[in-house]
Every structure is written in structure tokens, then in C-alpha cells.
Amino acid sequence: MTPHPDIDVVVFDILGTMVDEPAGLRRGLRALLPDTDEAGVGELAALWHGHVDEQQREILAGRRAYADSTVLDLEAATRVAARAGVGDADAIRALAASGQRLDPWPDSVRALDRIASRFPVVGLSNASRAALTRIGAHAGLRWHQVLSAEEARSYKPRPDVYRLAIANAGCAPERLLMVAAHAWDLRGAQAVGMRTAYVERPVGDPSGAADAFDLEAKSLDDLAAALGAA
């Protein structure tokens, strides 16, 4: 672990980095389809994620008007339910909401509290404002501020999303540390001048040989220690 950079604010990705997004979706799928085996649940989860990823790319490419994550999740849930032969509107809405009932990783709450005792901590997510309210409440995450890509009417890794955090911090980009389990997210932060910290998670996007992040940690606890948070 290299020494921590000189920073004023720590900015965290949320989905996948602070909460286990795939597990929450799988739990919702099992509730909807209790007789479906794990392979079937996995296929439906892949369909969900594929739809959301595809539509975000369409929005970023300008081929679709902006729609927030709540809209995309409901579309994904509708598509998954149709594949499974479920047409009940209430069941589809309940499935869509499973994307907002996400459990924190075992060290998320504890380490976030440690880091928050030393630095302002900001959540920066592709999730909508409404979704972030519910995600934070369910997971028990302590933020000083939470920012949604909805405010930029875009999605990470578009630069405008990271600039939300920079503008709200009121300091130079290099005084902000972006923390994520997704290398693609950190590359986006680097592109606007932010410092970066990669944290390993089971569902993350690992760093590659060409990546050079300021910090790399096996866990959020390790990152807190590197930042000198008691």
C-alpha cells in the first residue's frame, strides 16, 4: 500500500463498491420466482444488467433521451418478468424495487464511518436521487453528501458526472479522491483530474496492467488505514 495522497474530500462510488448490487437483484428474482434454479436466476440477472448497460450506452451516445436509473430498472424488471412469464404489475414493481434494497459489504458501514471521522465523504452514483435515498437507508451508509448522475442528466464515466463532485467540493480536482471497485469508473475520474483509489470487491471491474491508481486496497478497511482514519 502506497502512502495516501494529500486530499480534502473522499468520493465513493456506491453500486458494487459500497453495496452488493448483484445479490440484491438475485434476492428479488428468487422472491418473484421461488421455483427457479440458480442457473435460471443467473440468466435473468444477466438479462437485467444487459438491458441497463445497453440503455445507458444508448443515452451516452445520444441515441436515447436521458432516463434515470429508476426508469431503466423498471424497464429491466418488465423485460425479465416477461421472459419468466409474469405479467402482474405489482410483482414487476416489487422486482424493480429490489435494486434499491441492497446490503452493504461487511466492511462498508464500519470503514465509511472511520473515513468520515477524518474527511468529508460524498457518494457519487449512477443511481437516481430517489434510488439513492432508499439504498442509503437500507444499507445504513453515513454520507455527508450524496450526488446522483441524474443531476448531470448523464451517467458515469461521462466527465460531467465527476464534475458534480468537484463543483460541490469547491476545491481543485486533485484534492478529491475517487474510491471505486470499478477500474472504468476510476479512469473516468482520472480524466477530470481526480485522485483515485481502487478497492477490491467480488463484483468489481479489476484494474489492468495499464492502470495506475493512487491507491489500491484489498478492502475498505485497508483503505481507511491507508488514509490514516482511526
From TrEMBL:
Which keywords appear in this protein's UniProt record, sorted alphabetically?
Answer: Hydrolase
Query: What domain of life is recorded for the organism?
Result: Bacteria
Where in the sequence is the signal peptide annotated? Answer: none
User: What SUPFAM superfamilies does UniProt report for this protein, alphabetically?
Assistant: HAD-like
InterPro entries this protein is in?
Answer: 2-HAD, HAD-like_sf, HAD-SF_hydro_IA, HAD_sf, PGP-like_dom2, S-2-haloacid_dehalogenase
Family, similarity comment: Belongs to the HAD-like hydrolase superfamily. S-2-haloalkanoic acid dehalogenase family.
Q: What is this protein called?
A: Haloacid dehalogenase type II
Organism, as annotated = Nocardiopsis tropica
